Structure formats: structure tokens, C-alpha cells
């Protein structure tokens, strides 16, 4: 991985929201929505030095640029979004450690991550966001807010799970929010919307109007309902 600082962010003990593209594109949708809503500014880049694929442009190839941004707003740092995440464990772990290093550099006390939660439960247009935490003390606080926690034991793979492990190992509090989805192959805007609403409850911050996400969800469902009858989510 290659890391480049662009500027010094004007933040004071920020909360950090860090997530990458995952099933249903949930992580990217949430991060991109927050960046757009809060008008965040870029201050650091992370670039993969090992592309997982190449583009065949019809007789010649191009190497894709795998790059992810750190952005900041008023006492908030947002990392990730965009397309994909590192395919090699070495780069994935290096990226998680870099997020932790940034958190320590700016004295962040909390890291939030988000993603999709694959389920077989029928939930119509109202998916649930499930939360998991880095400690039982935080778990108790979450439950007092009436927020659902993950119902069963499971293994969370990829950046949107591993970052919580890195947070715990480094003494930083962390919460993961995972929105229900039935079909991981298509963008899940309803899952993203309910994650943002839950994140607002946890952080006591407004993270933007989610009506646009509902409109996009309707558009996706309308497009697929006439094709493969892909379920809502």
C-alpha cells in the first residue's frame, strides 16, 4: 500500500467512520452519502500497489487505480467508500493498521464501521440494522438505546469487520452497523438508509437527508422487478 498526505485535517478528537465496498455496496453507499451530505474534504489517500485485475480495452489493457480517501468534516473523519477493497490479506491488514494510526494521530476515541448483513428473513421495505461492539460495556449502552444487536454468532470478513478487531487490539472503542439485505448482488439503498439513521442515534449527529436513498431504492426495485424478480432489501 502507498499512503499520501494531502493536508492536515482541522479536527479535534473526531469520531471516525470507516467502511469499504461490500455486499450490496452498503459500505460505499453509506460513506459516499455522508461525504456528500457533510461536504467533507480529502486529506489523505491510500493506494493499492497490487491491482486485483486489469481492464481489457479491446486489444490493450489498462491497470485500474485502486485508491481510497480519508476525508474530514467538523470533528469527523470518514474513510473508504469508492470501489472494492484490497484482495490480499497483507494489504488489507496494512490498511486497517493505517486507519488505526490516523485515529491515534488525531486522538479519536471511537471508530464506526458499516456493511451488509445477509439474511433470509422477509422484511419488506424495512430492513433492520444490527450492531456489534468491541466490548460488553458498549453493548449494554447500545441496548439501552433500543438498538438491535447481532442475533447470532458469525464470522465477519473483509475490512468492515476486521477494522473492529484492530480497534479493540489498540484500545479504541468500536461499533459495527450492518443492514439487512436479501440480495447482495445489487445496491442495497434501504439497508444503507437504516444504517445512517441508526448511526445518527449513536453519534447524536445529523448525517444528511436519506430521502434520496429511498428514491434510489425504489428505482432499483422497479428495474429488477420486471426482470429477475429480485427481492427487496
Keywords:
233 residues, alpha/beta, Rossmann fold, 8-stranded mixed β-sheet, two-stranded antiparallel ribbon
Question: Would you kindly provide a brief summary of this structure?
Answer:
With 233 residues, the protein is α/β, with parallel strands linked by helices. It has helices at residues 26-38, 89-105, 136-144, 159-169, 189-203, 211-225; strands spanning 2-5, 15-20, 41-47, 55-56, 61-62, 67-73, 76-81, 110-118, 129-133, 173-181.
Walkthrough of the structure:
The chain is α/β, with parallel strands linked by helices and 233 residues long. It has a single domain, classed as Rossmann fold. 34% of the residues lie in helices and 24% in strands. The strands form two sheets. It has an eight-stranded mixed beta sheet. Strands 4-5 form a two-stranded antiparallel sheet. Helix 2 crosses helix 4 and helix 5 (189-203) runs antiparallel to helix 6. The two termini are 34 Å apart. The mean pLDDT is 91.
What is the level-2 CATH architecture name? 3-Layer(aba) Sandwich
- Number of helical regions: 6
Average of per-residue pLDDT values? 91
Shape label? globular
Total domain modules: 1
- One letter per element, helices H and strands E, the order comes to EEHEEEEEHEEHHEHH
Strand order of the largest sheet: 1-3-6-7-2-8-10-9
Largest sheet: 8 strands, mixed
Protein name: PAC2 family protein
InterPro entries: Proteasome_assmbl_chaperone_2, PSMG2_sf
Organism: Candidatus Nitrosopelagicus brevis
Amino acid at each position: 500500500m502507498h499512503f499520501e498526505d494531502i493536508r492536515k485535517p482541522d479536527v479535534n478528537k473526531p469520531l471516525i467512520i470507516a467502511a469499504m465496498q461490500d455486499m450490496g455496496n452498503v459500505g460505499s453507499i453509506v460513506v459516499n452519502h455522508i461525504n456528500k451530505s457533510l461536504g467533507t474534504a480529502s486529506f489523505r489517500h491510500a493506494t493499492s500497489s497490487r491491482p486485483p485485475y486489469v481492464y481489457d480495452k479491446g486489444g490493450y489493457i489498462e491497470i485500474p487505480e485502486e485508491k481510497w480517501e480519508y476525508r474530514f468534516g467538523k470533528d469527523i473523519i470518514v474513510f473508504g467508500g469508492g470501489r472494492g477493497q484490497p484482495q490480499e490479506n497483507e494489504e488489507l491488514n496494512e490498511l486497517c493498521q493505517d486507519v488505526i494510526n490516523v485515529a491515534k494521530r488525531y486522538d479519536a476515541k471511537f471508530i464506526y464501521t458499516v456493511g451488509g448483513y445477509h439474511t433470509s428473513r422477509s422484511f419488506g421495505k424495512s430492513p433492520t440494522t444490527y450492531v456489534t461492539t468491541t466490548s460488553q460495556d458498549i453493548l449494554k449502552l447500545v441496548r439501552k438505546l433500543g438498538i438491535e444487536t447481532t442475533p447470532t454468532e458469525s464470522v465477519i470478513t473483509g475490512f468492515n469487520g476486521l477494522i473492529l478487531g484492530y480497534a479493540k487490539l489498540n484500545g479504541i472503542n468500536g461499533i459495527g452497523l450492518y443492514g439487512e439485505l436479501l440480495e447482495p448482488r445489487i445496491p442495497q439503498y434501504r439497508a444503507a438508509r437504516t444504517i445512517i439513521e441508526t448511526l445518527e442515534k449513536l453519534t447524536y449527529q445529523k448525517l444528511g437527508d436519506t430521502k434520496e436513498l429511498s428514491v434510489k431504492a425504489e428505482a432499483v426495485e422497479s428495474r429488477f422487478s420486471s426482470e429477475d424478480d429480485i427481492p427487496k432489501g
